[in-house]
Amino acid sequence: MKSAHQIALIVCVAVSSSQIACVASAELDDEEVAEVQQEVIVHNALTRNALTRNALTRNALTRNALTHNALTRNALMGNAFTSEALRDPESRELLSFIVSCALPEDEHVDIEVKGRRYRFRGELGLAPEWGKARGRCDEKCQEWVSACLLSRVNYMGAHVTISLRGNDHALASTRAERRRYDHAEAAYYGNVFLERQRRFACMAPGETSIPRVCGDSLEDCVVDVVGSCDDVCGRPRPDGSFPRCRDREPIRLPFGIRVFPPRTEVYKRAITAFLE
Question: Where are the alpha helices (DSSP H) in 133-190?
Fold first, then answer.
């Protein structure tokens, strides 16, 4: 007979554009692995977003040597600063999304905090090398994972399915996915692993707001919105995603000439989010 604290779980995975397979499981007691439920749909680059602003911006997990070490249990728990940070539920929330963005769906990271074990599952696989025994997260890795994290922030903390696209094989999309998720929202880019986080977004052509991420106003948004992607990024790729996005808007000169201000940075790793 099951104990009173056992909780039945239903895990659903999209296996095709029209089919979803559901498997029942159970969270038992402290002797079992307590999986962090990320509410993900594993199907190409379709995923659900619910990363909260505080978990991303006020988190000790990104302000240490996390990227200098492997994204493995031994490295995480062997670092006194990281292991202490993971005592905070918001740090564990952020780690669940970092692992989801970085590692492929057949990998996971288990940690133990206060005698309770947690499992964080990979999903997109944007930086699989980070999960190797002596892995690191270099600038390329940091920018891909950062773009992924920024695209998955939700102002209300609500689960919304989005299609993430960009110039990486992990973000490939099917024709059916592109037909269903055909509303371009914004492109996200930056680096949240720096001492001073860089969080940017540009709006898809025709858009004037990003309510999913920013709420009702762009003024106090978790990302610095630098205008339209048409103005700050390269020409859209065939899947509709924007490459090579800048952190500043151009200065408009006579005769349609645009010049970017000095010290404008270009981010090669940008992820464009699409909604239904």
Answer: 139-151, 175-180
Cβ-proximal residues to 5 (8 Å cutoff; 6+ apart), any chain: 29
Question: What is the torsional sign of CA 98, 100, 104, 108?
Answer: positive
Strands 198-203 and 224-228: parallel
Q: How far is CA 241 from the centre of its chain?
A: 16
What are 106's two structure tokens? 């057949």
Q: Cβ neighbours of residue 142 under 8 Å, at least 6 residues apart?
A: 67, 191, 192, 193
Query: Per residue of the chain (276 residues), what is the pLDDT tens digit?
Result: 434 433 333 333 333 333 333 333 333 333 334 444 333 344 457 888 889 999 999 888 887 679 999 999 999 999 999 999 999 999 999 999 999 999 999 999 999 999 999 999 999 999 999 999 999 999 999 999 999 999 999 999 999 999 999 999 999 999 999 999 999 999 999 999 999 999 999 999 999 999 999 999 999 999 999 999 999 999 999 999 999 999 999 998 998 888 999 999 999 999 999 999
Q: How far apart are CA 190 and CA 149, in angstroms?
A: 10
**Cβ distance 149 to 127 under 8 Å?**
no
pTM score, whole prediction: 0.83
The pair of three-digit structure tokens given for residue 31, joined into one six-digit string: 């002797």
